[in-house]
Design brief:
It is found in: Endoplasmic reticulum membrane; Lipid droplet. It is a multi-pass membrane protein. InterPro entries: LDAF1. With 149 residues, this protein is mostly helical. It contains 6 helices and no strands.
Length: 149
């Protein structure tokens, strides 16, 4: 009952798969990535992919608030050299508490986003496998028959 896809669609998907596999291979062969994956942290994150994705999303989302906080710290430090020492302590304290609140919220949001990404990946990969089942050619059958004997 499934419709046959036009040949260009399957060729486009195969080309996209080749490009993605080359990209993943180039990332995996990077010397810095290899060194990180040999470390204890890399091995731990390799065994816990959901935690690795959560950490990645958290770091990516917390870069902007941390950057704003550091900018405020630098600007208030410059103001302190001018003579506003009490204001600096107040602003850094308020900024630190605000950063703490934002990072706690971002950790919760990053866990939710990681879960959503994982569920979306599972659903999309299941749908792709349902819509485009792997096709076995006549040559594949002969190779399998030849390998069993």
């Amino acid at each position: 009952m499934a419709k046959e896809d036009p040949p260009s669609t399957s060729k486009d998907l195969q080309e996209l798969q080749k490009k993605l596999s080359l990209l993943v291979e180039s990332i995996q062969n990077n010397s810095k990535v290899v060194a990180f994956m040999k470390s204890l942290v890399g091995q731990y994150l390799d065994r816990h992919p959901f935690l690795a994705l959560s950490v990645l999303v958290f770091v990516a989302m917390s870069a902007v608030p941390v950057g704003f906080f550091l900018l405020i710290v630098v600007l208030t430090s410059l103001a302190a050299f001018v003579g506003v020492i009490l204001l600096e302590g107040l602003v850094i304290s308020v900024g630190g508490l605000s950063l703490l609140c934002v990072l706690c919220g971002l950790s919760f949001v990053s866990l939710i986003m990681s879960g959503t990404i994982i569920v979306s990946y599972i659903v999309v990969s299941s749908l792709v496998n349902y819509w485009f089942p792997p096709r076995h050619t006549w040559e594949d059958g002969i190779h399998q028959l030849h390998n069993t004997y």
